[in-house]
Q: What sequence folds into this?
């Protein structure tokens, strides 16, 4: 396989055959990943240091004999059997995402808005048939942030900045990010100043559309009273924007129905 540019956004996800003494090298936006197979051993190295909004996907397979890791960042996995199949899968993050709009957004009483938020996927690598999971890691490591009223009450999340785009056509579709359509309804008597919003991605499913782009179901947050609490409702299946999409990953946590969550306000 020779390097190829402008592949589908999902060309790097799936099953790949890696013969002994061969390396599979992938570049997916900011993520660089190499998977090398030796006899009874797999060597995996990954790092994310490129442009967060790079949309390039490249794949390359090369033959090379290796007797030891190239550097300490490479992880070694001893695996019995002679299967040459490596499975590269994707999942949603293992914590909630706190998105901070680059420009605060005001939603007056009685108004509603539909936003599109995106965030990095996690990568899962397995080998064999059936696949045994070896490693899971974020395609791009977001910063940690605390979301709560004080230092004792709250939850640890990942933090990101967002343009909170209202028009999907203005939203880039990047190969290692998922998009969540978020509807916010302000039924309180006061204006909602949207400075932070917490998205509970651990209860969402992951979908892939016909163009190889990644989505979750719709999320609706309804604010009934002043403050940061909101009723959480999840859509059934992929959003309408995704067309005939297939589910490729289940939620990390079982979603609860009719849930009241702290979604908008936090001191930290």
A:
């Amino acid at each position: 396989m020779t390097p190829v540019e402008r592949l589908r956004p999902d060309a790097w996800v799936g099953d790949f055959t890696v013969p002994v003494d061969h390396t599979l090298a992938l570049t997916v936006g900011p993520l660089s990943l190499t998977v090398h197979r030796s006899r009874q051993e797999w060597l995996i190295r990954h790092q994310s240091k490129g442009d967060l909004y790079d949309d390039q996907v490249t794949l390359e397979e090369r033959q090379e004999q290796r007797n030891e890791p190239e550097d300490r960042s490479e992880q070694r996995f001893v695996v019995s059997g002679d299967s040459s199949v490596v499975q590269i899968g994707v999942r949603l993050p293992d914590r909630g995402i706190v998105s901070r709009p680059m420009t605060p957004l005001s939603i007056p009483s009685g108004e509603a808005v539909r936003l599109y938020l995106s965030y990095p996927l996690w990568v899962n690598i397995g080998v064999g048939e059936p696949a045994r999971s070896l490693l899971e890691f974020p395609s791009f490591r977001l910063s940690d942030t605390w979301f709560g009223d004080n230092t004792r009450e709250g939850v640890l999340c990942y933090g990101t900045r967002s343009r909170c785009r209202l028009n999907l056509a203005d939203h880039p579709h990047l190969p290692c990010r998922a998009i969540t359509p978020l509807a916010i309804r302000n039924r309180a008597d006061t204006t909602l100043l949207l400075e932070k919003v917490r998205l509970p991605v651990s209860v969402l499913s992951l979908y892939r559309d016909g163009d190889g782009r990644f989505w979750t179901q719709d999320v609706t947050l309804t604010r009934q009273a002043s403050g940061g609490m909101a009723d959480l409702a999840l859509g059934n299946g992929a959003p309408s924007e995704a067309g005939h999409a297939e589910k490729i990953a289940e939620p990390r946590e079982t979603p609860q129905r009719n849930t009241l969550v702290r979604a908008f306000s936090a001191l930290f």
